[in-house]
Amino acid sequence: QVQLVESGGGLAQPGGSLKLSCTVSCTIFSSTDVHWSRQAPGKEREWIGAIDRLGLTVYEDSVKGRFTLSRDNAVTTVFLQMSSLKPEDTAIYYCHTVLNTNHYWGQGTQVTVSS
């Protein structure tokens, strides 16, 4: 059974930073791509980025240059460093992955950007 647990959400001021973590219980984590998506109130869930097993990253345009993904295979964790936060970044943030055609999601962590 694969489990993903996000942490690190909270309240940040516009222009501030937060760092989210996604810890994955998976014996083949080092070979696993991990994605992040978010869902703002009243909006559909949107994909925002991914990091592959080699550490290569790709981002959605609205977060490119502000958000940075990294991974530490030793602790089976992916990090999402968010900087220059905007009120429109307010959302529940989810990490997720696909293994053997099965899609696994974390429970999400709330990020609120407000002064």
Short description:
The chain has 115 residues and is an all-beta fold. The chain is built from no helices and 11 strands.
Question: What labels would you give this structure?
Answer:
single chain, 115 residues, mainly beta, 4-stranded antiparallel sheet, 0% helix, globular
Shape: globular
Beta-strand level of the residues, as a percent range? Answer: over 45%
Give the proportion of residues in helices. under 10%
Amino- and carboxy-terminal Cα gap: 40 Å
Detail the poorly predicted runs: none
Task: Please tally the helical runs, counting DSSP H or I stretches of 4 or more residues.
Answer: 0
Mean pLDDT equals 96
Radius of gyration, CA atoms, in whole angstroms: 13 Å
Main β-sheet: number of strands, strand sense, barrel status? 7 strands, mixed
Report the strand count: 11
Q: Helices and strands, in N-to-C order? A: EEEEEEEEEEE
Give an account of the 3D structure.
There is one protein chain. By secondary structure, the chain is mainly β. 0% of the residues lie in helices and 53% in strands. The strands form two sheets. Strands 2, 4, 5, 6, 9, 10 and 11 form a seven-stranded mixed sheet that branches. It has a four-stranded antiparallel sheet with strand order 1-3-8-7, with no helix packed on it.
